Structure formats: structure tokens, C-alpha cells
UniProtKB/TrEMBL annotation, chains A, B:
Catalytic reactions of this protein: tRNA(His) + L-histidine + ATP = L-histidyl-tRNA(His) + AMP + diphosphate + H(+)
Family: Belongs to the class-II aminoacyl-tRNA synthetase family.
Aminoacyl-transfer RNA synthetases class-II family profile domain boundaries: 1-385
PANTHER family, per database record: HISTIDINE--TRNA LIGASE, HISTIDYL-TRNA SYNTHETASE
Subunit-level organization: Homodimer.
Entry-linked CDD domains: HisRS-like_core
Protein name: Histidine--tRNA ligase
């Protein structure tokens, strides 16, 4: 029915998969990241803030043989024909920076970065196309001391934001050990790394599913294959029972102490030089952490940590929260992983041709924030501002003077700036703001040089059924001299 | 010469017009914005963080009659055919939020927002395509008390970040007064607002150029037109001398006191109802600020403030830094504007059809940071971390224990993680890190249970020619017991 000429009103909506963050959502995340940054700073890491936009070329996200960015990034072509895209993580920009500024940056270069990244993926419940990452990486350090440092720092960061010791564990493994096991099992030939690649892929995915499929399921995947309840068949790696035994033994290599686990792993990789190297690295990391007081209550060697299949080249680590929460169906389960990382030695090489050793960790910002809320360390409703109400619109200057005094005293305070005609609306506003105190001064009070303070916290309690005694002993409304406004508000807030 | 098959290495470069921020660039901006946020919080403003990506429709950036985003934004089409774009400011997303959540947000809604925005414009020296904005706005408050509050808050924010009173001034004007003057001058007909629109545009641009062109230049532009030194001719507004006199009088209406300026403005708009309303608003704002103690040393009524030609509908304000700096050519000039804003009552209407009054301010983050650096309030080289060097790579655990102790004592400390072979490189690294103290322990010192501390600050002074007395009284290198490491480092740092 609308006329052709009537311009259609734009929809007031975020694009699909994007969202807004209000008030405490912003401040709680900020407080958490500030605390993490403080730890990173103490460890000598410097902040780096790259721009949101990179060339697709630098991100390495071109479709093979096609002059168009790969799915997964938001990309567009600029006037000069260059393809640009929003960064999808904080590691690719770091690799670009490490290459671009290699002559200016200290080496090793410790940097942290916090900020949004963008993924052009199907959004889903709780899955957004923009989200925060919080990374710390050391570029240019080949020593596993750098990996150990990252594990210690991760442990400190978790405690600083409010995850108590005992409620988390940092698990460390090494991809070289895993490859050593593959070699022993006969699915990795060091002289021909490409051989058995698809088998190894199946083995890795099987290991990663131990939690979900149990031992029998994993054994099936290592062997001929597995048919699930729905009847779907997943092809197996085709390992013999003997070969599968080696892999299963690896997953079960965890022992009471790090030293015992390491000893068991050393047995398992006997005959593989790479595996021996990986075990040695794990042992060194454990020793270095021990020397700093990071014992098995905080960091453990755990052979079941696999992480990012193609990416890592040495130590890998993962921080898991071990306390239980209730899932959507009311069942208890462990909170699970909130951070992970490892050594990736080939990222800078893309740009310069020179291999640069690097290791780092990424904290899942939303996951960790959810954990803090689950632990009651965040998410409490914050107290709102004191609200100075407007009884007489000709005396705005008087009310503004009050709010100014309160602010100068360091109190969070607001003047009601809506239409003051309906006083009930002002109290509703104070309620919506979660205000603890409303300040009221009608003309009568003005003449008498007083103000009325309404204790909205107590008022809410009374409304919710506080006892008469409480009501009597502490009235929800007091009249004080105008000159005593700030002191009386402070008193009511305390 | 390269083989066809050799993949070309990606260039390690930011896209044109984008840049990286390292270390102090990040922390100084953050410290400044944290301080500003603290003030905004005290005033009852809540943080809002919208996503970087909006629909082009919500931004209102479609090319007329073309199904493609306008120049000025970075835009792309998603799989569903919707056009998305990076936000170009923080006001358009606020308008979208205010419309989308109008039933949930408190009304009035005070919010602040800080974050990057993107402009698809030609980059130039110091002009980037991604930069920070820092905005505070009140949506849903028709009262000019909201404008007065923003001016007071802006004043507080400038002082809190380190601009002393006397080094800045917040200037306030009102677009209604300007329109009243236009009416009196005969270039605005309230019954036909479209009439004389081009003339008014020329008048506004002329006023805005008073600083640069002087009175004679502006008069020329108000009249027949102006030929500049290069011979180029700019068409004038075609005002008669009498009409031009009214406009010139407006620009010269500033008086010693706000009251006198307001009185003069009232004379100038005699006969214009809109102008009288604007003068009344200015008077009210000045009175409200006065009641809170914001006198003419901080906020003044200034008829020369024009700002954003089409956008504002009532009060406009601008914060100017009044101290002098040297420009590129070594000439003294005032630092100039670092923040501005005003009332814009029609932004939400685009979405809902309902006019929603709004007013706000935007701080030029990079400008203000530059001002703080010019005043020596930022930009000093920060002290780097204590560096624990590695003399003996078999004793990494010992060194790591040292660095761990230092960190637990709250000191910023690093272990050297590069190749330790060349000790000179380690000291060069400490130097590049601006480290105040290097910790050294060779096998000899380890056996004797001591460590050597090298005072790199003093060392640098000696190298730069400190007196022999200073050198003697405070040796640049001390040996201390291993157990006294932390205390001795703290002592050296103090």
C-alpha cells in the first residue's frame, strides 16, 4: 500500500552473526583483559595493535588458482584492485609484522595483542562473526624456555583474573612425541614425510575424539573403521592391532608425576629420533617450570593434548578449567578448555623465506569470561548511579549543582534528563538504572534548605518483604540539610 | 628469472593508509581513554560496544539510485546479497542501537563508545583509514541540561587526562542563533526553509574561514565573491552590504562575559523567533554550567563556532587547546580543536519515524594524544624490563628461577631467550629493550652463590660522559648474594 515514493525505512538491526555489547558486558571483559595485560606486561611482553584490515595476500587467504579471497574471511577489492580483508586471527598479522619490521623489533620479540577478529562463517547460537582474541607470542626464540614461559604466564593470567589454583590445569604435550609414536607405529616414514599422510590424519582425529567415543570407538577408527549409532560409517586408518596398540599406549601414557609420564613416553618412542627429541623437550619444559615453582598442581605433561592438527611443530599446550558446571540439559560437566597454543616455526617464512621460531598462546576471551561468571567472579549486577530527580523544571541549575557536587566527591551520579512532568517515570528510570539512591527536592524542601534521599536498595528490600524491624531501624527515606547532601548520600551508600 | 612454479612470496605490508601501533603507542592511548572513561562513568554514562560491521542500509551509505555503497565506506556484499560495511563513525551505530533497543534501554540513554572507525578515503600524511574515536552521547533528552552536562564532562575529561585548566577552553554556540541571524539578514525564510539554501551554505563556509581569510576575505565571500592569490574565483553569497553587516556582527558578538555575549546576540536576532530560542538556550546552558562551577575559564559562549554544516540542530560545542606549539615550519600556533559535538535531533528518526532528541561529543583521540605529547604528559620513553642474561645455557632453570622471583615481586622482568652464544648480543638486546638492569651469573658466580647486577641506566650515563665522581659513588656493576637478588634489583631501580 505504501506509495512508490515513500522511502523505505532502514531496518535497525545488526548484520546476521554480529551483536552489541552493553554496559557490564564491556566493562567486565575490559577488566579481565586489563588484568591479563598486566601479567603479560610483567613478563616483558609489549602490546601490538595491528589494523583490522590486511591485504588478503598477507593473510594467505586466496582461493587456490582463483583471484578471490577464500571463504572464512570478509574481503573486498579496493580501487587499485588489491584484495583487502578483515583479520581472522591475531597470529597472521603478527607474522606480517614480524616480517615487515624484522630489522627494528627486538629479537626475540615478545608481544601481546587483544582485539576483535572476524570470521565469515555461518553464525549459530553463541557463535558470532566478530569476537575477541587475546594472544601472547614470542617470535625468534628457538629455546623451549620460551614455551615454558608461556605456560607459566598463562597460569598466572588465569589466577589473576580469578580462577583459583586447583580450578585449572595447563596441559603440555609435544607434536614431536606424537610424530615419534606415529613413526614407531609405522605410519610415519622420516625419509618420506608425505607417505601415510591420510592415515596419520585419521589417527590424529581419532585421538582427538577419545573423550567422546571412548577407547573402543578410537580403536575402531585406528583399525578398519567405525559405524556410529545412525549407521554412518567412518573409514579407519587401517592400522594392525599391534600398530593400534602403540597409539593407544600413547594416549594412556599419563602417569602420576610428570617424570613418570616422561619416562613412559620415552619408552613408547624408542627408535624414533624425532620422538626422543620431543620427549627431551617435554622434560626440559617441566624442569624449567619446576624451577619457577610451577608444579603439577598447575602445569602437567599430558599426552592426550593434540590441538590444531596441521599447525604446530613442537610443544602444544592447553588450559583447562576443571570445575564443574551444569550444561544445557542440567548435567554436570567440566568447564573445559579456555586457552591453548604451541610452537609454530614456519609462519614468518611465508614472507621472508627465512624460518623464524615462534610460540604463543591464545585465550578464548568469551569462554574465560563465561567461566568467571560461572564462578561468580563476574556478572553481578553493578550498582547504578545516584539519580538526582527533577521536581521543578525551573530549578534545573539547583539540581545540576547537586549532581556536580556528588561527582566531584567521586560518586557516580546523574541528573534525570527526561521529561520531568511525571515523577513516577523518574523513579522508574532510577530503577532501570539500578540506582541506589534518589535525591529529591521539591519547592517546599528548597525553601526549607533540605533534600530528601530515597534509599532505593532498602526500598526494593522492603517491597520484597523485609521485616518491619528493618524498615523501622533504617528508614528508606531521610531528609537532610542541603549542605549535607554528599555526606548523607555517602552514608546511605555505605 | 624465477621459475613459473615458485610461488611469489606475499609482501609483508599493511594496506595503504593503515598502520600498526607498538608498545607505548598502545599503552598511552589506552591510559588516556581509560581516564576519559572513568569520567564518563562518573557522569552515569554506560559503555556500548557495537560491532565493526553494520549493514550499509543502517549506516545510510547507499549511493542514490544505485545498489552499491557510497564512497567513504569499506563495503562488500555477503552471500545473501546484503551489503555490509565497516562503520565510519560511532554515531550511526548508536542511532541504530537506540532504534533497535528503544524498548529496553533506559530513557534518556547516556552512553559512551571508544573504538576504531574506518574511512575509505585517500590516505595522506598523518591521515589513516582506520583511527580511534571516543564519543559520549545522551539520547532521549530534549533539555539543554543534557548539552550543558556534556560540556562540563568534556572539561573534566580534558583535565583528567592532563590538560591543565587554562590550557583549554570549551566554546559553545547554537545553530538556532546562527539561523536567527540568517533570518534577520534575509537569507532564511522560516515559511520556506529550502529557499536561499545555497546562499546559506556559502555564508556558513565563509564564517568557518574567518581565521584563515580575515574579515575582508569573509566580507568578499558574503558579497560578490573572492579572488584568491592564485587568481581562482570563489562565488559569493550575493548579500548586500547591510545583510553582510548583520552576519559580520554575529561573528564579532563575543564579549568579555557570557552574559554580555548573550545580550549582544539577543540584539542581533531581534525579530527571529528561532534566534531568540537559540539565545535563550545558550543563556540556560551558561547558567547551568555556572551553577556547577564551570565558569568562563572553562566554558564560554562563542558565536564563531560553526561546526558540521548540515548535521546539528541546536547547541554546538568545541574544545580548543589554547597553548602554543611549533608547526612544521617552526612557527608558533595554537594547538587548536581536539573535540567537538552538538545536538542532532533527527538521527534515530531514519529508523523509527519518531524524532528522538540527542546530543553528544566526540574526542579526536589522535589529536588529544598528540597534545599530551606536546605537553610532555605522554611520549616519555618508558623503562623497559629487567633482563636476566644467559651465561650458561645448561642452567636455564636457574635463570628462569631468577626471572620468576623478580616477577613475583612485581617487577617487570625477562629472561633472554635468543641464542645465548654471543654475550654482546644479550647486552644489545637489553639496550634495545631499554632495560634498566641486567642480571648476570656465570658458572664462577654460581659456584660462589652470587649474581652480578649491571646498572644500565648509569652505564648509559657514564657512556654519555657522567662525571668520575658519580661513577665512583655509585658503581655501574655490583655483585650481590643470590638470595638478595630481588632486594638488590629493587634498590638499583629506586
Amino acid at each position: 500500500m505504501a506509495k512508490d515514493k515513500a522511502p523505505r525505512r532502514p531496518r535497525a538491526e545488526t548484520p546476521k552473526g554480529f551483536r552489541d555489547y552493553f554496559g557490564a558486558d564491556v566493562t567486565e571483559r575490559k577488566a579481565m583483559l586489563d588484568a591479563v595485560a598486566e601479567v603479560y606486561h610483567r613478563y616483558g611482553f609489549d602490546p601490538l595493535e595491528t589494523s583490522a584490515v590486511e591485504t588478503v595476500e598477507a593473510l594467505g587467504k586466496f582461493l587456490p588458482d582463483v583471484d578471490r579471497p577464500n571463504d572464512g574471511v570478509f574481503g573486498w577489492q579496493d580501487e587499485d584492485g588489491d584484495w583487502l580483508a578483515l583479520r581472522y586471527d591475531l597470529t597472521a598479522p603478527l607474522a606480517r609484522v614480524a616480517a615487515q619490521f624484522r630489522n627494528d623489533l627486538p629479537s626475540p620479540y615478545r608481544r601481546y595483542a587483544m582485539g576483535p577478529v572476524w570470521r565469515n562463517e555461518k553464525p549459530g547460537p553463541g557463535r558470532f562473526r566478530q569476537f575477541y582474541q587475546c594472544d601472547a607470542d614470542t617470535v625468534g626464540a628457538a629455546s623451549v624456555a620460551a614455551d615454558a614461559e608461556i605456560c607459566a604466564m598463562l597460569s598466572d593470567a588465569l589466577e589473576v583474573v580469578g580462577i583459583p589454583r586447583g580450578d585449572y590445569i595447563v596441559r603440555v604435550n609435544n607434536r614431536k612425541v606424537l610424530n615419534g609414536v606415529m613413526e614407531v607405529a609405522g605410519v610415519l616414514d622420516p625419509s618420506d614425510p608425505a607417505k601415510f599422510e591420510s592415515e596419520r590424519g585419521i589417527v590424529l582425529r581419532a585421538i582427538d575424539k577419545l573423550d567422546r567415543l571412548g577407547e573402543a570407538g578410537v580403536r575402531a577408527l585406528l583399525g578398519a573403521g567405525r559405524r556410529d549409532e545412525s549407521g554412518d560409517f567412518t573409514k579407519g586408518a587401517g592400522l594392525s592391532d599391534e600398530q593400534a596398540e602403540v597409539v593407544m599406549g600413547f594416549m594412556a601414557a599419563g602417569r602420576e608425576t610428570g617424570a613418570a609420564t616422561v619416562a613412559r613416553l620415552r619408552e613408547l618412542v624408542t627408535g624414533s629420533a624425532l620422538g626422543a627429541e620431543g620427549v627431551q623437550e617435554l622434560e626440559t619444559i617441566a624442569a624449567l617450570l619446576d624451577a619457577q615453582g610451577y608444579g603439577a598442581d598447575r602445569v602437567v605433561v599430558d599426552p592426550s593434548v593434540v590441538r590444531g592438527l596441521g599447525y604446530y611443530t613442537g610443544p602444544v599446550f592447553e588450559a583447562e578449567l576443571t570445575f564443574e558446571i551444569l550444561d544445557d540439559k542440567g548435567r554436570k560437566r567440566q568447564f573445559g578448555s579456555v586457552a591453548g597454543g604451541g610452537r609454530y616455526d614456519d609462519l614468518v617464512k611465508r614472507f621472508t623465506g627465512q624460518a623464524v621460531p615462534a610460540t604463543g598462546v591464545s585465550i578464548g576471551v568469551d569462554r574465560l569470561l563465561a567461566a568467571l561468571r560461572a564462578k561468580g567472579r563476574a556478572g553481578q549486577q553493578a550498582q547504578g548511579p545516584v539519580v538526582v530527580t527533577v521536581m521543578d523544571r525551573d530549578r534545573m541549575a539547583d539540581y545540576m549543582a547537586m549532581v556536580g557536587e556528588l561527582r566531584r566527591a567521586g560518586l557516580r551520579a546523574e541528573l534525570y534528563l527526561g521529561n520531568p512532568k511525571n515523577f513516577g517515570n523518574q523513579l522508574k528510570y532510577a530503577d532501570a538504572r539500578n540506582s541506589p539512591v534518589a535525591v529529591i527536592q521539591g519547592s517546599d524542601e528548597a525553601v526549607r534548605g533540605v533534600v530528601v534521599l530515597k534509599d532505593l536498595v532498602l526500598g526494593a528490600k522492603i517491597a520484597a518483604g523485609a521485616s518491619l524491624e528493618e524498615w523501622k531501624s533504617r528508614p528508606a527515606q531521610v531528609e537532610v540539610a542541603r549542605g549535607g547532601l554528599v555526606a548523607a548520600v555517602k552514608d546511605m551508600l555505605s
